[in-house]
# Entry
Amino acid sequence: MNRPQICLTLTGKTLSQNLETLNKYRSYVDMAELRCDLLDEDERMFIRRFPHMAGIPCVLTIRRRVDGGAYLEGEASRTILFARALSFADSNPDNNFKYVDFEEDFHIPSLQEAALAYGTKIIRSFHDMENPVNNIAARLEMLNTTGFEIPKITFMPHTLEDVTSLFKQAARLRDNNHILLAMGPLGLPTRILGAKLKNYLTFASAPEAAQNLPGLNHLDPITLAETYHFKSINESTRLFGITGWPLAATSSPQLHNKGFEEHNMNSVYVPVRAERFKEALSFADSVGLEGMSVTIPHKRDVLSEIKDIDPIARDIDACNTIVKYENSWHGFNTDVTGFTRALLEFTGTKNLARKKVAIIGAGGASHAIAYAIKKLHGSACIFNRTLPKAKLLAEKYGFKSAPLVPESLSLLRKYNDIIIQTTSKGMNGLPPSTEDNDPLYFYDFNGKELLFDIIYVPSVTPIMARASQSGCKVCNGYLMLKYQGYEQFELFTGERY
# Structure
């Protein structure tokens, strides 16, 4: 089977802007889609020139608003624009549009005949910007009315189950003369794993132009090629991933895919956004993932879905890694070793004897951290907005607990040798510090504390910036991510990172 091609969607207002973008990413793509509906009106008069300017196979698209585009002038003017772009074909086919995208209800015989006569392939597309599409095989057959078209289905999934269904249905298709894509963050696996969908192509966009196509969730060509090794993915590629919700930012794909590359492994690691862990597990089973990293909020849900759980993960009551051995899922927790190694490297100590530690938060990550603090002989107090959760975790390890409120300041000052921030506050915030982005907004650092924030995107959170300004030594969560990822890699592959 031929690998899917990478098509760079060009959304600039002028042909020269689009050519500049294409030249920037030319080495990463196979073809370019000219979105004429996004061109300035006077630029549309000259779209016939673009294939010669581009020097690469080009797709002509004039997308209507109803199909997620920006063309508003009506079907008559759009038909004329298509005709102007396709007519007066050059004797050199490389100077003509290689493809033209017509929607399923756009049937103009003269345009179709002209396209076929000039060697321009028709992509016959169907878009649902709000709902998933069922009966994929039947819909593809309906779209390919002449037998010479490339049918394309793009839809907006509601849940990961809709994406899983697409992969299941694609597995039964015999050829790769189609394009199947799910939009939005949930649909990201369809853009990376085009080979598994037997797709003819996948679309990418320049990151600087992402705002021109909001909601589609295109990857940029460099990420697609260098992080996910898109051009190397085939039917034999081993699949791994990370699941969580909303999983807005993660560096795990870069870490694992770099490891696969350095070990010369035909493997890829992809983000799998799932609101419920059951959906992620179903996706993994259906698509063939052999292992997954598990992040918030699913680390505890794993325990009720997978029977074979490592004793440490069971004791911690949180699992961040699942691996499939002989058709059976096994659960582990690598946060403990990852955090332990990172913390000791940060503090420059061999253990935490005589250290008083404040653990901020009582969620999934804090369970592994509390376990590690106990093993390192530290004493701790767990501060959480919901006191019963903090108390339950603290009692397990003989720690103290307190509500995460200004009234707990005196106790916080007693446990401030090392402050470990485990909540999600600050994940989407930048300095300055506020009550919304800083869990310790009410605490004044004295400059002697060591602050470890498990968040790594952004690299400096508001609480880190505030602590650093007071003279504190600070560390984000990247070291923890890296070291726990190394252990995951070994669980996934049997090889040391």
Q: What stands out?
A: The longest strand covers residues 121-128.
